[in-house]
Fold this protein.
Amino acid sequence: MRLFIAINFNEDVIDDMVRLQAELKRCRAAGNFTKPENLHLTLAFIGEYGNLDDILEVMETVPFHPVPLKFDGLQYFRNMYFAGIGHTPELESYVRRLRRALSGNGIPFDRKKFSPHVTLIRKVSFRDGVPEELPKNIHVRETVGISVSRVGGSAQIKSMKKVAGTLKIDQAQYRELESFSKFSSDMDAVTAMTLDRGRKNNQLLIQPQYSPMPVGEQIAIIYCGTHGLMHDVPVEKVRECQDAFLEKMRSAHAEIIATLASGKIDDEVTKVIESVMADTAGAYKS
């Protein structure tokens, strides 16, 4: 399984980096642009590793505290443009502790010097030659690194891949529609539904700091989000509804959560999820 540990950013910061990419495209840059949903700050690249639980256990032993992050402009290195991140002692200290913990548990990782950055484009070339002026001072707002996550699509177990297969695309579409909706008061039913589902999925993807959700529970709740099972629940009640749903699953259907965690999902499993969420969501209808 291809694994790496990274910090994900909020939507405002992602939008700033997408604007940086747009400036490169305006300069007729070509290459492999990083998709918005993959713009993150890698802390430790592990690569192929067979036991995801080992990684999660290490992450739990190295608490991550929010740190301020300040971007210091567009930079170029080896046919790659990236958004650099300024000197951040708190982040560098965390990375040292994280890497020591990985090493102490026999987990291999790329040991090259930590140089915090977010890759915007790889294998870059310019159709009309390198322009005299490249965007150097596009502003990327300061942000705060809130939590770290284990990321990497190929690391997902089969049941997670099945329920979350379209999640990145769905959320990217949501972000795009949301930016346009700010300038229009008219909205068709499909757009309204996409925005509603995107906002609720954002709530479902939030995990409490220092309390990572077990993978079986993650799969169950993502299934609810991607299948619109909370369409009648107000956005501000989504987290409360999620907690009530998971409590019912733990107390009455622990075997379903275990099945999901093992990588299996079938009609029998999804019927239970749908039934429990229908019963739970009914109490939160607006």
Remarks:
- The chain has a mean pLDDT of 82.
- The CA atoms of residues 216 and 261 lie 4 Å apart.
